[in-house]
Design goal:
Acyl-CoA_Oxase/DH_mid-dom_sf, 33 helices, 7-stranded mixed β-sheet, Acyl-CoA_Oxase/DH_mid-dom, membrane, Butyryl-CoA Dehydrogenase, subunit A, domain 2, two-stranded antiparallel sheet, alpha+beta, flavin adenine dinucleotide binding
């Protein structure tokens, strides 16, 4: 009995020590005391084993002992197996900052650090711009007109965007810009997402491009000259990074600059001779100034002893000799300005380098640092705005579209995608807003930028497919009335650009985060590079303590023992506690994958991707909880919180299962499964009851729908009709209309109305004649039903409207000419 008791006490004591990461002295005390108890009370075998364990802990765990024999051996082995970090990888790793993503990597997230990012909301001028200028700009757009008729924004819209400073949102007011916060930029782009071409046109100059690069790295002369001109639209910028052979792998630029001298106007000028070929450059066809990334060489060593000077960035005026610019690509689904730029022996002086000669070779660092913020804002905000509009349109359409005498929104087959759309929009909005809020507090989120870009654009893909499904024929028939189809076809652009989602998910989220966000890995690699054994000892054994700690936390939390303390109450508390459990499991699995696969993990992209999926879903859930905690709640929002968190945590657990099943070391996979999920999976997909409740709320005039659509373009006072505003107006009147529908339909079913009254309008008139409804109700229904029919109607065109070359048009209904009579053959 004593033996069993000592074993239990040893296990419990060690689990407590490991959970608290109390270190070797605490473990030594537990084993030593229990071992002595065993020896003193006739349990010699277990007592001896415990004392042997204590001795092993002392030799391996106490710094004074281990540094004499263990650490040197571990250090030598580590130097052999540790992955090499290239200069470009190191630049990416050192760029940006680590915040909540690092907490999730630690396995013991401190929620107070996330909640410390207070939200002050938008400034008065930011909110006014959102309410007025953004609404007016959105109201000038019709997707069909822009995509099919003119392949461009209208001229008056271009003029308005320049006049109102849309291209200078990130530029400080002292340079004539708007000086908006990251949150305001995000909200502007969400509102402009009513039209994807408009959103891209405004988003790109305020993201990765000359404006941000000049702000952070430009010389004072460059700032003074360009920033005011960029702010008011006198200059339209683009940035040439990608090319035929350098897309996602932007470090492999084949474009070159060579330091040389050239005589200009009788004076010898030191400068660069550039040769480049760029593709997929947004705004290039109309840009007046081109930011350019290239590899700089100095073969004559005019600037120093180095020949290869590294990636460098320059700013080149459009009219520079030798540069070909102006042709267009044809992006799928959307005619936003995009095209190639080619340069042959283009000479520019040294002062065109962004930041001047001192910034030679710093281009990759400059790009990565800018991208970490821009990638958090532009495409994620566009995806979020698209999600909210698609939800608003779909909820309205499915409520007024009737089949089998009921709104299709009441059919469970439609309710399922509606609820999913609402959750994806809710998650996206919380994530992009709270991450922008971190940026406003000085963070430069490198790993979260990859999470947001890939996850939210993938949400957009799912959500737009759902929207197309519930709209049916309304959405697959293009024309001026179709507010969805063109945006749907343009979705692959968001999936592909600013780091293709395949690359981002498989290589960047975990690949960058494993080193950048891990509490110890970067220190271990730095100690290796510095050949500092003492620093390695500190980092390595701190890392070992973290592994033991995460093992204990994941295992005990898996049984519900010692739940994490979280600063949430109500429905959010359970989800925050489970994030702590899964965070511990994630930290353990990350270390296990790195230890078992070593440098080969870089090539095991599917495992890396699943680890990234766990991190992504934990990050997204955290942002939802932060938004819930910080914001005001409306009726029905709790159901959406439950749906969203369960949806995300179920995906996280699924990623864990796939990691366990696919680790090459099968014993390790089974062990991790037993430690991380000792009682199996906790989260299933959201329950149908939640889906039904959410779907009804987003397809009616409800507080939840109003909150989800807040700060979208929802007025109908623009140059173009606003489908969202029209659906909102119909939903306000819907309850009255539904009661009247029931009255006349019931009468028709009883045979009280003529059998020829097949249309709603006919039944209304018949009901009025029979005295079933009042004249006032009949007039209301005439107006209501006319608007419903308008929203259900699709466009048609002349037979020859789509043939660009009319001479190729086939008239299939043309009366065929009579066949010529064949000469009668004489047969004799």
């Amino acid at each position: 009995m004593l033996t069993l008791l000592l074993i239990v006490l040893a296990i419990v004591g060690l689990l407590v020590v490991m959970r608290r990461e109390a270190g070797a002295p605490a473990a030594l005390a537990v084993l030593g005391v229990l071992g002595l108890v065993g020896l003193l009370f006739d349990a010699e075998i277990i007592g001896g084993l415990l004392l042997l364990g204590a001795a092993a802990v002392a030799v391996a765990g106490l710094p004074a002992l281990r540094r004499k024999w263990l650490t040197p051996r571990l250090f030598a082995t580590f130097k052999k197996v540790a992955p090499k970090v290239s200069a470009t990888e190191r630049t990416a790793l050192e760029a940006g900052s680590v915040s909540w993503d690092g907490e999730l990597f630690s396995g013991k997230p401190q929620w107070e650090k996330l909640l410390a990012f207070k939200d002050d909301g938008l400034r008065n001028d930011e909110q006014a711009f959102l309410d007025n200028q953004c609404a007016k700009a959105a109201g000038m757009c019709n997707a069909w007109d822009i995509a099919q008729e003119r392949a461009d924004l209208p001229q008056q819209l271009w003029d308005y965007l320049k006049k109102e400073g849309f291209f200078g949102m990130i530029i400080p007011k002292e340079y004539g810009g708007l000086g908006f916060s990251a949150k305001a930029q995000s909200m502007v782009l969400q509102k402009l997402s009513a039209n994807e071409t408009l959103m891209v046109t405004v988003g790109v100059p305020n993201s990765l491009g000359p404006g941000e690069l000049l702000l952070k790295y430009g010389s004072q002369d460059q700032k003074d000259h360009y920033l005011p001109r960029l702010s008011d639209g006198r200059e339209i910028p683009c940035f040439g990074l990608t090319g035929p052979r350098a897309g996602s792998d932007a470090t492999s630029l084949p474009d070159t600059g060579v330091v040389c001298k050239q005589t200009i106007n009788g004076e010898e000028v030191l400068g660069l001779r550039l040769n480049f070929e760029k593709r997929w450059i947004t705004l290039a066809p109309i840009a007046t100034v081109v930011g350019l990334a290239f590899r700089l060489f100095d073969p004559e060593k005019l600037l120093g002893d180095e020949e290869d000077r590294g990636i460098t960035l320059a700013l080149i005026p459009r009219d520079t000799d030798g540069m070909e610019i102006g042709r267009r690509h044809h992006p799928i689904g959307s005619p936003f300005m995009n095209g190639p730029i080619i340069g042959k022996d283009v000479f520019v002086p040294l002062d065109t380098i962004i930041g001047g000669p001192d910034m030679i070779g710093q281009g990759w660092r400059m790009l990565v640092e800018c991208l970490s913020i821009g990638r958090c804002i532009t495409l994620p905000s566009g995806a979020t705005g698209t999600a909210r509009y698609a939800l608003g349109w779909s909820g309205g359409f499915t409520r007024v579209r009737r089949q089998f005498n009921v709104p299709v929104a009441e059919m469970e087959g439609v309710q399922e995608p509606l609820a999913r759309m609402a959750a994806l929009a809710y998650i996206s909005q919380a994530t992009v807003y709270q991450t922008a809020n971190m940026i406003d507090h000085g963070e430069k989120p490198a790993v979260p930028s990859a999470i947001l870009k890939s996850q939210l654009t993938e949400f957009q893909r799912v959500l737009l497919s759902d929207a197309m499904d519930v709209h049916g024929g309304k959405a697959v028939t293009l024309g001026p009335r179709n507010y969805l189809g063109i945006g749907y076809s343009a979705n692959p652009v968001a999936i592909t650009v600013e780091g293709a989602n395949i690359m981002t998910r498989n290589l960047m989220i975990f690949g960058q985060g494993a080193i950048r966000c891990h509490p110890y890995v970067l220190d271990e690699l730095a100690a290796k590079d510095a050949n500092d054994m003492q620093a390695f000892d500190k980092a390595f054994f701190g890392h070992a303590g973290l592994i033991f700690g995460n093992s204990a936390r994941a295992f005990t939390l898996g049984f519900g023992i010692g739940k994490a303390s979280v600063p949430f109450d109500g429905p959010a508390a359970a989800y925050a506690q489970d994030i702590a459990r899964l965070s511990a499991g994630f930290g353990l699995c990350a270390d296990a994958a790195m230890a078992s696969l070593g440098s080969a993990l870089k090539k095991r992209e599917m495992i890396s991707a699943r680890l990234g999926d766990v991190l992504s879903n934990l990050y997204l859930t955290s942002m939802v909880l932060k938004q819930w905690q910080a914001g005001s709640k409306v009726e029905g929002e709790e159901a959406l919180l439950h749906y969203s968190c369960r949806f995300l945590l179920q995906r996280a657990e699924q990623a864990f299962v796939e990691i366990f099943d696919n680790l090459p070391n099968r014993a390790l996979g089974k062990t991790l499964n037993a430690v991380v999920m000792p009682t199996g999976r906790r989260w299933n997909k959201p329950h149908d009851d939640l889906a039904r409740d959410i779907a009804r709320r987003v397809s009616t005039h409800s507080a939840l729908r109003t909150k989800l659509l807040e700060n979208t373009w929802d007025t109908d006072d623009g140059e173009q009709r606003n489908p969202l505003a029209r659906y909102n107006a119909l939903l306000i009147d819907y309850d009255r209309a539904e009661a009247l529908y029931r009255t006349v339909n019931k009468a028709y079913a009883k045979g009280e109305l003529p059998q020829t009254a097949l249309h709603p309008e006919a039944r209304v008139e018949a009901g009025l004649e029979k005295g079933l409804i009042s004249a006032e109700d009949a007039e209301f229904m005439r107006t209501f039903e006319a608007e419903v029919l308008e929203m259900l109607t699709v466009d048609d065109f002349a037979y020859d409207a789509f043939a660009k070359n009319k001479s190729t048009l086939i008239d299939h209904n043309e009366t065929p000419a009579p066949a010529p009579k064949q000469a009668e053959e004489n047969v004799k």
